[in-house]
Amino acid sequence: MRLLNYYKYLFALSGIVLLLGVISLAVFQLKLGIDFKGGTLTELAFTKSYKEDDIRQILNSEGLNNYQLQTTGNNGLIIKTENLDKDKHDKILSDIKAKAGDFEEKRLDSIGPVIGQELKKNALYQLLLVSAGIVFYIAYAFRRVTRPITSWQFGVAAIIALLHDLLVVLGIFSILGHFKGIEIDSLFITAMLTVLGFSVHDTIVVFDRIRENLKLYAGQSIEFIINHSISQTLVRSLNTSLTVLFVLLALLLFGGETIKYFVLALFIGIITGTYSSIFVASPILLLWQKWRTRRT
Amino acid sequence: MKKKLKLLIFLLFILLLAAGAAYIDYPKGSKISLKKLKIPYEQTFKARLGLDLQGGSHLVYQADFKGISEGDKKAALAAVRNTVERRVNSFGVSEPLVQVTGQDKIIVELPGIKDVNEAIRQIGQTPLLEFKLENPNPPQATVGANGQVVIDPNSAWISTGLSGKQLKRATADILGQTSGQQTTALGQDVVVRLEFNNEGTKLFSDITSKNIGKRLAIFLDSQIISAPVIQSAITDGTAIISGNFTPQEAKDLATRLNSGALPVPIKLISQQNVGATLGRDSINKSVIAGILGLILIALFMILYYRFPGALAVAALIIYALVSFAVLKIGISITAVILVGIFFFLGLTVSSWFGLLALLSYVLLMFLKGLSPVTLTLAGIAGFILSIGMAVDANILIFERLKEEIRAGKQIEQAIDDGFARAWLSIRDSNMSSLITTLILYIFGTPSIKGFAVTLGIGILISMFTAITITKTFIKLFVGNRLLSHPWLFGVSRDTNQRMHTNDTNQVTNL
User: Fold this and answer.
1) For testing the chain A interface, which of B445, B506, B509 should be mutated: the one with the most A CBs within 10 Å?
2) Which of A45, A207, B107, B180 is surrounded by the most beta carbons within 10 Å?
3) Which residues 6+ apart lie within 8 Å of B178 measured at CB?
4) CATH number of B56-126+266-274
5) What pLDDT was estimated at residue B186?
6) What sign does the dihedral B67-B70-B71-B74 (CA atoms) show?
C-alpha cells in the first residue's frame, strides 16, 4: 500500500484542521468551566413546566448578569452563575420556588475562586508530569541505536504527533466552546491525558515495526520500509481503536449526562491519536530522512 | 495426553474463577461466610459508591490562620479537623469523611445526607472561643472617606493566644455548691467552669499574673460573652464564666464548648451536592452503556476474527467479571505489591507463580486486608473504557498469530510464538497508559482518582486474562482438526498450503 505517496494530501488535511483549531484557540480561547473559573452550577428538576423569564427576572434582580441557562431533559434546568455564597444561593432558590414552581435540586456545584485556582494548578501539574513521563518513556523505548533513521528522529516525530493530537482536540473544543458553550473542566484534562497515553503507545507500535523492518529489509528504500511497516500494523491499529471507539460511542449515547463531554473528548482524542500515528508521525519520519539524505 | 490434561485443569480453574467472580458481582451484594467450617470469617461484598453515584455532599472549608504562628498552623488545622469530625459523626451519615488537604483546607464528605443545609449550619456552628486582653493603645477614631467617624470595634482587644485550643473541658456548674461559699438568697450562680490543659494552664497563669486589674474578655464566635476584671493570678488552670445563665443555657454552652471549640474559624469555600436520583440515574445509564459496548465489541470480534474472536469475547466477559469483582473486593498497597511480584515471576520464571498471585490476593481478602474501590461516574467510564482496551491485547495476539501462520508455521508453534512475541508488545503498549493513570491518581480530584484506579486495575487485569485465558482457550481447541482450519483464524486459503509442512523457515513476503 503506497499510503505515503499521498502524504501531501494528508498533511493538507491535518493542516486545515490544525489551522482552524489554532485560530479558534487564539481568538475564542477555551471556555473554562466552573472547575477552573470558580462559579456556581445548580441543576434543578421542575415538577411542571415553568417560565424561563421568571428565572431570569429573579437572577437579574440579584444583580447577576453573567449567567447561563441550559435546559435539559423534561423540565430540567441548569443555571450557571458566578460564585454565589451560600446565603445568596439559598435565597435565589427559595425565590424561584415561590415564583416559578416546585423543583428538586438534583445537583449543586459551588466552587470558590480558591479551589478554582488550585484545580487549575493541579491540572497544569498533571499535564507537565504526563508530558515529562511520556518524553522519558519515548527516550527509553527508542534507546537502541538504529540506522539510518536515528532514535532522535523517532522520538521527535512521536512528540510532534502528540502535539498534533493535543492541538486538534483543544481546537475542536475551543470551537465547540464558542459556538455551543461547551466547557473545559478537570475531567477534560483527564481525557486529554488519557488520550496522550493512548496515542503514544499507538505511535510506538508503528515505530517499533519500522525499526524491525529497517533491520530486516536493510537494502530497501526508506519509503518502501515505512510503507510496508504501516501496512503491517494498520489493521491492528485500526481494530484496537475501533473497539475502544465502540465502547465510547455506547457511553456517549447512553451514558450519564455529567460525563458526556468527557467521553466526547476521549472519542475525538482517540480518533486523532490513531490518525496521527500513521498519517502524521510516519510522513514526518519519511520527509525528515529524505531531507537528510538529500543534503549529503 | 499430559499436556491436554494440564490444559483442562487450567480451564476448570478459569471457569471456577469466573463463577466466583460472577457470584461476587451480584448487584444486590453477596456474602461469603465460612462459619459453617468453624472459621470466623464472614464478609459482605457491596460496591462502594462515590458521592456522584450515591448522592451526597462534598464540602471544602478553608481555615483562617490570622493570629496563629507558622509553627502552630499544622496542629491547629488537625485540631479543627478533629472537632469538625465530632460534629459530623452526629449527623447519622454512614462513612463520612473529614480530612485535611493542602496547608489550610478541610474536606468533608457526607454520602447520602438528606439535608445538606442543616449539616452545613451545624458544622459552621461550632463555637470559636477566644480570650482577649484590653488593647493598651487602641487606634484613634479615624474619619472615613465619606466623613463618617470610624472606630474598629475589634481593635479594642488583642488576642492572647489562649483559646479553645487549650480547653480541656467545660462543665456547667452551680457556684454555691462546689466552692463551698454561702449562696445568695435569690438563687444560685449558674456558671460554666473551664478547665485548661497544661499549655492552657501555663498561658492562663501568665496572663492573669501579668494583668491584674485589667479586663480579660471572653469571646464566643466573635462576640463578647463576658469581660471580667482579673482579680488575681489563676494558676490552677480553671476559669469561671458567669453571665446570668439559666441552667439550660449553661449546659448548652458547656456542650457546645466541649464538642468542639474551634481553634480557628473556617469558611465554606466550595460545595458540591449530588441528589440521590441523579446518582441512581447515572448508574442505570452506565450499566446500559457498558452492556451495549460489550455487544458491539462482540459482534465486531466474531465477524472479523471468527473463531478466535469468539474465544476472545468469552475471555473478555470473564475479564469484565473478574475486574469488577476486584473493584468490589478491593485492593491495598500490600495486595498490589504481592500480586505484582508474583505475576511478574509468573511471566518470567514459571507460570505456577501466577497461581500464587491469585492465592495471595484471596488470602488478603480472607484476612480483610483489602478495602473496596470507590466507584465514581468517571470511574465506571474508566471500567468500561478498560473493557474496550482489554480487547487490544487479544487483537495484538491474533494479528501476530496470523502472521506466524502465514509464515508457514504449524498452528501449535504459531500459537506459542505468537503469544510470546505479542506479550512484549502488550507490556510496552500498556506501560504508557499505566504511567498516565498513576499521575492522574496522584494529582486528581476524587472523581478523577476513581477513573485512574479503575482504568489502572482494568489494564493490569486485562494483561493477565489476555495471556492466560485466551491462550488456554485457543490451545484447547488446537488438537481438534476441524477447529484448526486456518480460515477460522482469518487466514486466507492460499496460505493454507504452507501450513501443513514441517518447514519452519520464515517465508518473506516481498
Assistant:
1) B445
2) A207
3) B193
4) 3.30.70.3400
5) 41
6) positive
What does the alpha-carbon distance between residue B269 and residue A118 come to, in Å, rounded to a whole number?
Answer: 12
Name residue A16's amino acid.
Answer: I
For residue A147, give the C-alpha cell: 540506522
Nearest CA in chain A to B394: A240
| Type of residue found at A235 | V
B-chain CB neighbours of A258 within 8 Å are: 52, 282, 377
The verdict on a CB contact (< 8 Å) between B431 and A201 is yes
- What is the CATH topology of the domain spanning A3-34+115-295? Multidrug efflux transporter AcrB transmembrane fold (1.20.1640)
* Greater model confidence, B494 or B315: B315
Residue of A44, A190, A245 to mutate, testing the B interface (most B Cβ within 10 Å of its Cβ): A190
Say if residue B500's pLDDT is above 50. Answer: no
Amino acid code (one letter) for B179? S
Do residue B289 and residue A250 have CB atoms under 8 angstroms apart? yes
Band of pLDDT at residue A268, cut at 50, 70 and 90: very high
B224 touches chain A (CB under 8 A): no
B462 touches chain A (CB under 8 A): no
Instruction: Give CA–CA dist A10/A4, Å, rounded.
Output: 9
Rounded to the nearest angstrom, the minimum Cα separation between A138 and chain B is: 9
Q: How far apart are CA A217 and CA A211, in angstroms?
A: 10
Tell me whether residues A187 and B387 touch, CB distance under 8 A.
no
Architecture of the domain defined by B128-258: 2-Layer Sandwich (3.30)
Give the three-class secondary structure for B331: strand
Q: Do A107 and B275 touch (CB under 8 A)?
A: yes
Minimal Cα–Cα distance from B384 to chain A, Å? 7
3-state secondary structure of B212: coil
SS3 A41: strand
In contact, B271 and B57? CB cutoff 8 Å: yes
Residues of B in contact with A108 (CB under 8 A): 271-273
Provide the greatest CA pair distance for chain A. Answer: 82
Whole-number pLDDT of residue B328: 86
Structure confidence by residue, pLDDT tens digits, A183-192: 888 888 888 8
Q: Which CATH number fits domain B2-24+32-48+283-331+371-498: 1.20.1640.10, 3.40.50.1450, 1.10.150.20, 3.90.226.10?
A: 1.20.1640.10
Residues 193-222 of A with CB under 8 A from B: 193-194, 196-198, 200-202, 204-205, 208, 217
pTM given for the model: 0.75
Residue B178 in this model has a pLDDT that exceeds 50: no
Q: Which of B304, B311, B317 is nearest to B473 (CA)?
A: B311
Please name the residue that has the C-alpha cell 473478555. Answer: B316
Q: Report the first-to-last Cα separation within chain A, whole angstroms.
A: 29
Q: B385–A43: do the CB atoms touch at under 8 Å?
A: no
